[in-house]
Amino acid sequence: NSTPRPVTSNAASISRHETPPRPTSRPVHALPAGFPAPSQRSRSSSPSRVRASLPAKVPETSGNRPAIRLPAAPRGSDEIFGLGELPPPGQSRWDYLAHPQNWRPERGQLHDRLIGDAKTAAQDFAEVIERGGHPPTLFALRGNTAAGKTRMATQTIPVLANALKESGGAGCINPDIFKRSLAETPEGAKLTSAQVHAESCILADRLEDELRLQKTASGAAISMLVDKRLAGAHEID
User: Fold this and answer.
1) What's the confidence (pLDDT) of residue 3?
2) How many independent structural domains does the chain possess?
3) Angle subtended at Cα 224 by Cα 97 and Cα 181, rounded to the nearest 5 degrees
4) 8 Å CB contact between 144 and 229
5) Which residues form a coiled coil (predicted)?
6) Do the Cβ atoms of 110 and 80 come closer than 8 Å?
7) Residue 54 has pLDDT above 60, yes or no
């Protein structure tokens, strides 16, 4: 009985025999009511099911918010200086404003002065063309805005470039030659090019009509340079 007995480690015994096995998968917990099971989530989130779950249309907002109002377009000079009740925009308004009496008197005086200056420049243009030995000619440059019509005349056609230079660059029928003067108002406000566009086109048409009756110093019909869009068939005919 005095022989010592071997000592067995309780810790080793516990680690070998009493440690519970490690779980091989996560425990499954009960899901709250209404929550989809894992096997159903991938199916319910498929693109077709997501699209099907979207509302048919976006709900309308309440009428409490004020409507967004765009700023009113600035009035054109024809609406500012025209007299009487103007016809709606279009050919009828164009015909109405072609009559000088349908403009304010001070605006009509400005028109007369601008037309007089333009006719003088156009006369100088025609005299240069005639001195160059050319018969009375109607030059027409047709194209959209900023297409390069004027640049072509002043840089690539010598006969036109010389005549325009001698006439101060204004010896042509072009709405742009009137816009700077039309944009200035007695009140000091400056109108934009777009605001005076219709008015300048009306003056260009008037200038063309009056130049048809003009003669050079020799009595010949004058040459003219039309530098406009010429978008309508009536302008070409």
Assistant:
1) 56
2) 1
3) 45
4) yes
5) none
6) no
7) no
Identify the three-state secondary structure at position 136.
coil
Give the whole-angstrom CA distance, residue 198 versus residue 93: 10
Is 173 within the bounds of a domain? Answer: yes
Under the banding of pLDDT at 50, 70 and 90, the label for residue 15 is very low
Instruction: Using alpha carbons only, give the angle 73, 183, 92 rounded to the nearest 5 degrees.
Output: 60
Alpha-carbon distance 111 to 140, whole Å?
24
Asked if residue 119 belongs to a domain, the reply is: yes
Domain span holding position 173: 91-236
Give this prediction's pTM: 0.65
pLDDT in tens, 135-193: 999 988 877 777 677 777 777 788 888 898 888 877 899 999 999 999 998 777 899 99
Distance in angstroms (rounded) separating the CA atoms of residues 31 and 87: 75
C-alpha to C-alpha distances, 26 to 22, 29, 77, 125, nearest whole angstrom = 10, 9, 81, 98
